[in-house]
Specification:
mainly beta; Methylamine Dehydrogenase, Chain H; Cytochrome Bc1 Complex, Chain D, domain 2; 4-stranded antiparallel sheet; 9% helix; globular; WD40_PAC1
């Protein structure tokens, strides 16, 4: 997490702000706040990480979840795409996992941090991974062999990290009010800059200019050698995440107050403010077209925006409300099921997600739903889905009850919660 409580409230410069627009376009699936977002190089795939301990790989074209990555034992704080298309997730459990699309377990796990990992960065040549952690360190990892280098110097939590465009330095920021530029390959601080407020995020533009986001709501611009060259008041509350457009012209600054500021970096001007649900926005990312921004926050949704107009892009999932479980408010079984909506729909009228629809579930033989590709192992099993078999699935776990499944491992320890879930499914999935 990058939360820093505000030091003081500062008024936003209003003369350059357009009227905020309510967000409508959503990707709904996480069972908790969205903490991190990354976009593939071709702009077709999104990776999001959440406080629900999972990451989801989404198709932007179909607005559907294609894969749920479950490995971390705590919140997924940072995500990234590697140059070769693989994915990286980092968690509050201090671990970093590297994934191949379609595989249910990580290819590699990088361990060494002793506290939550808050941010990730990929080197320009794709050979190195940098991680920032609340253990006060920055670490460099070789993606070829997993070897790590520890860079020490920050005295408090390190919240942001970025490579310079030439790949010869790493920039980090933290709660200790400092920005550090680390020279590579030595891994020693080349420059240490004292700043007036705790720092939550950092980005480096293609021309080498450094931009930081701070607890006082300001963006600060620094030259490649660390000399302050300008600032913009982006929000009256802490800025907790930054993203830059591919050409570096625009900076998006997410605030804990629920707004996202769009800043013209070179003009040092606040262009407009996007206002969503009013809840904290923890993550921002530009799509490569430079005109679309993705945001994620405490409402558990990934939202899309037109950067140039401030308008929401796209529509909600057809045939249902923004929250697929809105009609079941107050239903305990629906709340237990919420962890499943990233992969499964309750109705066959909704767009397909990563797993098969549960419409008409009870009475159906396992792996018999037409149009879904089940594993060969499931096709040989003689299980009929009933309240009893679904309860058993979550009592002992999918790996034990249905070996060979693509379903992420998860259990429901409480018999009361299992009964609530099976009762809910009986009501919600009946044809």
């Amino acid at each position: 997490m990058r939360l820093v409580l505000p030091i003081r409230a500062v008024a936003v410069v209003t003369s350059l702000i357009s009227t905020p627009q309510p967000a409508q376009a959503q990707l709904t699936g996480h069972g908790g706040p969205v903490r991190a977002i990354a976009v593939s190089a071709d702009g077709k795939t999104i990776l999001s990480g959440s406080f629900d301990t999972a990451a989801i790989r989404w198709s932007l074209a179909t607005e559907s979840a294609e894969q749920v990555l479950r490995f971390h034992s705590d919140a997924v704080n940072a995500v990234a795409f590697l140059k070769d298309g693989r994915m990286v997730t980092a968690g509050a459990d201090g671990r970093i996992a590297i994934w191949t699309t379609g595989r249910q377990q990580p290819d590699h796990v990088l361990e060494g941090h002793r506290a939550p990992v808050a941010a990730l960065a990929i080197s320009p040549d794709g050979a190195m991974l940098a991680s920032a952690s609340w253990d006060h360190t920055v670490r460099l990892w070789s993606l070829a062999d997993g070897m790590q280098r520890v860079m020490e110097g920050h005295s408090q939590n390190v919240n942001g990290v970025a490579f310079t465009p030439d790949g010869k330095s790493v920039v980090s920021v933290g709660y200790d009010l400092t920005l550090r530029i680390w020279r590579l390959p030595e891994g020693v601080p080349q420059v240490v800059v004292a700043l007036p407020s705790p720092q939550n995020a950092v980005a480096v533009a293609p021309d080498g200019e450094i931009v930081t986001g701070a607890a006082d709501g300001k963006l600060r611009m620094l030259s490649p050698d660390g000399i302050e060259s300008g600032e913009v008041q982006a929000a009256p509350t802490p800025v907790v995440a930054l993203a830059k457009s591919n050409d570096g012209t625009l900076i998006a600054a997410a605030g804990i107050g629920g707004t996202v500021a769009i800043v013209d970096r070179k003009a040092r001007a606040l262009l407009r403010v996007l206002a969503g649900s009013g809840l904290p926005v923890w993550a921002v990312a530009f799509v490569p077209d430079g005109q679309t921004l993705l945001t994620g926050g405490a409402d558990g949704k990934v939202r899309r925006w037109n950067v140039l107009t401030g308008d929401p892009v796209g529509s909600d999932l057809p045939g249902g409300p923004a929250d697929p479980l809105a009609a079941y408010a107050g239903d305990h079984g629906a709340e237990v099921f919420r962890a499943c909506i990233a992969c499964h729909t309750l109705s066959d009228k909704e767009p397909r997600r990563a797993g098969p629809t549960l419409a008409g579930l009870y009475g159906r033989k396992i792996a018999s739903l037409p149009g879904y590709r089940f594993s060969d192992a499931l096709k040989t099993m003689n299980i009929i889905w009933t309240p009893e078999t679904v309860a058993k699935l979550f009592e002992i776990g999918p790996n034990a009850y249905t070996p060979g499944t693509k379903m992420p491992e998860q259990r429901i320890g409480s018999a009361e919660d299992r009964r609530a879930l099976t009762d809910f499914l009986a009501r919600a999935t009946a044809n």
